[in-house]
Amino acid sequence: LTTGLSSWFHNYENSLVFFGLLLMILTMIQWWRDIIRESTFQGFHTSKVYNGLRWGMMLFIISEVCFFFAFFWAYFHSSLAPNVDIGSCWPPINIFPLNPFQIPLLNTAILLASGVSVTWAHHSLMNNDLKSATHSMIVTISLGFYFTILQMLEYMEASFSISDSIYGSTFFVATGFHGLHVIIGSTFLLMCLLRILMNHFSSS
């Protein structure tokens, strides 16, 4: 997938991208199948397995913090001490940034609201209230996809591109990876919603 994206960005054919996406989707489907089979039907998820999954999630979150810290470091390094190559000013000359009080502020509110609704879903599951868990999960997934649509509109509205100096690079790489995380998270939550509808979860 990474090789295909690199080739596509350099104006080569995009068939490798679709092949990589297909392999990734197949891997996700088979992984979900194995998790559902082992935890729900075979009872293989003992306390040791649960602890391993918890540690795996904590290490994953730490790696994500480090991942995005690098993007913030690049942004602050370039904005607090602008190089002479970009006019010694921030944002660089002829770069017109988006208004932070329009779509970016709305997207922030949407993400905060989705955090509230997914917490509502978790507490509903802990109390065996599957109806509330289903409703709150639908709200969370809808907010995730709404965020993605607004992110796409923001990209279409931007007057600069990823090749427009360090500003365009840091903006599109950071927000692009963040948007990708939202899409993947919404997909995983959609799978959780299907499992709620099939009564795969309980308060224990």
UniProtKB/TrEMBL annotation:
- An annotated Gene Ontology molecular function: cytochrome-c oxidase activity
Query: Which family is this sequence assigned to?
Result: Belongs to the cytochrome c oxidase subunit 3 family.
What are the TM regions of this chain, as residue ranges? 15-32, 53-76, 101-121, 133-153, 165-194
Q: What's any GO biological process attached to this entry? A: mitochondrial electron transport, cytochrome c to oxygen
Specify the protein name: Cytochrome c oxidase subunit 3
Query: Domain of life of the organism in this record?
Result: Eukaryota
Recorded GO cellular component terms are: membrane; mitochondrion
Q: Which gene encodes it?
A: coxIII
The species this protein belongs to is Octopus vulgaris
Keywords in alphabetical order, please: Membrane, Mitochondrion, Translocase, Transmembrane, Transmembrane helix
Q: What InterPro entries does the database record attribute to this sequence?
A: Cyt_c/ubiquinol_Oxase_su3, Cyt_c_oxase_su3_dom, Cyt_c_oxidase-like_su3, Cyt_c_oxidase_su3-like_sf, Cyt_c_oxidase_su3_a-hlx
| Record CDD domains | Cyt_c_Oxidase_III
Domain annotation Heme-copper oxidase subunit III family profile: ranges: 1-204
